C-alpha cells in the first residue's frame, strides 16, 4: 500500500520507500493512503502476537516486495512475550499491558525490531545506510539492539546528555561495531530537530545515505498497532467489552498507534494520554492553541517532549480539531504524583511501576477515587522499573530485580562522544570531519 505525506497527499510513495526515507521530502510524516477496516471476527483463531500482527499489517504490505516476508518479519520481530496482567484497585478490575519483556526492556523494542527486520530485507544502497535515531532514552537502545551487527547498516544515536537514566545511558553506549552514540548538549527536541535537518539535507544524503528509526518512521508505528489489536481482541473475547487504554505519552507514537488501531475497527474504546509536566498536549486538548516549547525534565524522562512529532499524524487522522478532541483526552501527572503512585501501588497492589507507567496508573487511581472508573481500563506499562532504579528503589525501599537481558547489556563496556546541539555538528560528525 502506498503512503502519503501528512502535508501533501500528492507526495505518494510505496510503503518500502517510506520505510527507507523516514521523513517525507516536504518535512511531513508518512501515513498510509487509506486505512483497512476490520471486525474482531477477522482475527478468529489468532491467539498470539505474531499472527495478529501479520493479519493486521497484511493490507499495508499488499503489492510490496516485502509482502511474502511479512509472516517471517512478524515472527522475527515479536519473538518475546507480551503480558496482560489482571489487577484490582479497590474493587475495580483493570489490566496492565506489559510491553517491556523485549531485549531492552521498554516498548520501543516492538517498533525497532520490526523496522530492522523490514530494512534488512530491502534492497540497499551499495554504500550502506545510516540509521539516525534521536532518543529520549529508550528508542536508541532498542534500535541499536535491533540493528547491531547487521551488515550494510550503521546506527547513529543522539541522546540528551544528562537527561536519561544511568542504565538507559549505558544501554545506548554499550554496542560498538556498527553503532555510535552521541551525548548531545541539549534536550530531546534538539536531537529530534537535528535528525530532521540531516534527513532533509540532500547534499549530506548524497554523501552518506540516511534513514531514521524514530517514531517519525511509519515502520515503527505500524507494528505498535499490533499489541493494541492483540490486547483489545483478548479482552473482547473474554468480556465482549472494548478495551479503554491509558497511555504514558511523550512524542505520541504509542498513542498514535492506538488511535490507528481503533480507526481500523479493532475493539478499542476510550484513549487517554497520560503526560508528565510537559504540557503541550494536555493544554492543546483543553482548547488552547498548539504551542510547542522547550521540554522540562521530569521523573518520567522518556516522556520529556515539548514538541511531539506525531501530533501531525493524529491531526491528519481526525482532520478537524473538534473531532480530534472527541477522539482522545490528555492529562498531566506531575512528579509528586508519580512518586506517590509508585509507592502506593507497590504497597497496595504489589506491582512496581516505572515512572512513565506510574503516570497512567495515577489517572486510573484518580478515577477510582472519584467513582468514575467504569470501563475496561488497561494501563499501558511502557518500561521495566529496573531501567529507572534510581527513582524507583528509594521509593519502594527494596531492590528491583534486573531482567536478564538488561543485566547482560549492563555488563558490557560503554563509550560515547559529545556533540553540540546543532545540525552543523551532526553533519560534521556524519561526514567524519
Ligand atoms: C518512549 C517512551 C514513552 C513515550 O512514548 P511516545 O510514543 O513517545 O509517546 C513512554 N514511556 C517509555 C518508557 C518510553 O520509553
Task: Specify the number of helices.
Answer: 18
The total of beta strands comes to 14
Name the strands of the widest sheet in spatial order. 4-5-13-10-11-12
- End-to-end gap: 40 Å
Please report which band the strand proportion falls in: under 5%, 5-15%, 15-25%, 25-35%, 35-45% or over 45%. Answer: 15-25%
CATH structural architecture of the domain at 81-105 and 219-401: 3-Layer(aba) Sandwich
User: Would you tell me the structural class of the helices and strands?
Assistant: alpha/beta
Most strands sheet: 6 strands, mixed
CATH class of the domain at 81-105 and 219-401: Alpha Beta
The averaged pLDDT comes out at 95
**Roughly what percent helix?**
40-55%
The Rg value, from CA coordinates, equals 20 Å
Low-confidence stretches: none
Distinct ligands, ions and cofactors found in the model: pyridoxal-5'-phosphate
Task: Indicate the overall shape.
Answer: globular
Stated plainly, the CATH topology of the domain at 81-105 and 219-401 is called Rossmann fold
Tell me about this structure.
This protein starts with a strand and ends with a helix. 42% of the residues lie in helices and 17% in strands. The model has no long low-confidence stretch (mean pLDDT 95). By secondary structure, the chain is an alpha/beta fold. It has helices at residues 15-21, 49-61, 70-77, 108-119, 139-147, 166-173, 188-199, 202-207, 218-239, 253-263, 280-285, 311-318, 321-327, 335-348, 355-370, 389-396, 404-410, 423-430, and strands at 2-5, 12-14, 30-32, 83-89, 92-98, 129-134, 153-160, 179-185, 210-212, 243-248, 268-275, 329-332, 377-381, 417-420. The strands form three sheets. The chain has a six-stranded mixed beta sheet with strand order 4-5-13-10-11-12, with helices on both faces. It has a domain at 81-105 and 219-401: Rossmann fold, CATH 3.40.50.1100. Helix 6 links the parallel strand 7 (153-160) and strand 8. The chain binds pyridoxal-5'-phosphate. Pyridoxal-5'-phosphate binds at residues 106, 108, 136, 138, 215, 248-255, 302-303, 354, 356, 382-383.
Amino acid at each position: 500500500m502506498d503512503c502519503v505525506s501528512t502535508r501533501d497527499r500528492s507526495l505518494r510513495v510505496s510503503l518500502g520507500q517510506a520505510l527507507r526515507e523516514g521523513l517525507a521530502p516536504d518535512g511531513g510524516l508518512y501515513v498510509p493512503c487509506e486505512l483497512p477496516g476490520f471486525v474482531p471476527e477477522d482475527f478468529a483463531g489468532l491467539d498470539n502476537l505474531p499472527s495478529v500482527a501479520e493479519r493486521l499489517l497484511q493490507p499495508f504490505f499488499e503489492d510490496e516486495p516485502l509482502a511474502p516476508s511479512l509472516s517471517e518479519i512478524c515472527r522475527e520481530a515479536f519473538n518475546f512475550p507480551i503480558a496482560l496482567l489482571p489487577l484490582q484497585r479497590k474493587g475495580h478490575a483493570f489490566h496492565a499491558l506489559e510491553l517491556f519483556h523485549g531485549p531492552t526492556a521498554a516498548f520501543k523494542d516492538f517498533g525497532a525490531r520490526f523496522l530492522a527486520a523490514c530494512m534488512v530485507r530491502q534492497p540497499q544502497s551499495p554504500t550502506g545506510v545510516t540509521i539516525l535515531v534521536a532518543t529520549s532514552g529508550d528508542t536508541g537502545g532498542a534500535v541499536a539492539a535491533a540493528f547491531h551487527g547487521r551488515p550494510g547498516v550503521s546506527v547513529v544515536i543522539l541522546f540528551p546528555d544528562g537527561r536519561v537514566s544511568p542504565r538507559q545511558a549505558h544501554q545506548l553506549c554499550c554496542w560498538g561495531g556498527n553503532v555510535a552514540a552521541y551525548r548531545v548538549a541539549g534536550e530531546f527536541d534538539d536531537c529530534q530537530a537535528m535528525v530532521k535537518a540531516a534527513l532533509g539535507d540532500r547534499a549530506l544524503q548524497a554523501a552518506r545515505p540516511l534513514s531514521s528509526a524514530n517514531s517519525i518512521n511509519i515502520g515503527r508505528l505500524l507494528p505498535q498497532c499490533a499489541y493494541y489489536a492483540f490486547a483489545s481482541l483478548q479482552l473482547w473475547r473474554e468480556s465482549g467489552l472494548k478495551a479503554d487504554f491509558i497511555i504514558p505519552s511523550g512524542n505520541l507514537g504509542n498513542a498514535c498507534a492506538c488511535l490507528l488501531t481503533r480507526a481500523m475497527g479493532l475493539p478499542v474504546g476510550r484513549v487517554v494520554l497520560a503526560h508528565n509536566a510537559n504540557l503541550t498536549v494536555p493544554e492543546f486538548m483543553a482548547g488552547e492553541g498548539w504551542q510547542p516549547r522547550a521540554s522540562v525534565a521530569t521523573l518520567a524522562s522518556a516522556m520529556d517532549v515539548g514538541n511531539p512529532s506525531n501530533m501531525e499524524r493524529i491531526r491528519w487522522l481526525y482532520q478537524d480539531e473538534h473531532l480530534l478532541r472527541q477522539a482522545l483526552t490528555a492529562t498531566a501527572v506531575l512528579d509528586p504524583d508519580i512518586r506517590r503512585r509508585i509507592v502506593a501501588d507497590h504497597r497496595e497492589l504489589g506491582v512496581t511501576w516505572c515512572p512513565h507507567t506510574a503516570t497512567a496508573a495515577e489517572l486510573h487511581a484518580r478515577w477510582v477515587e472519584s467513582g468514575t472508573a467504569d470501563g475496561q481500563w488497561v494501563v499501558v506499562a511502557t518500561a521495566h522499573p529496573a531501567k529507572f532504579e534510581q527513582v524507583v528503589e528509594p521509593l519502594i525501599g527494596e531492590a528491583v530485580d534486573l531482567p536478564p537481558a538488561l543485566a547482560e547489556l549492563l555488563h558490557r563496556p560503554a563509550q560515547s562522544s559529545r556533540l553540540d546541539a546543532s545540525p552543523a555538528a551532526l553533519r560534521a560528525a556524519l561526514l567524519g570531519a
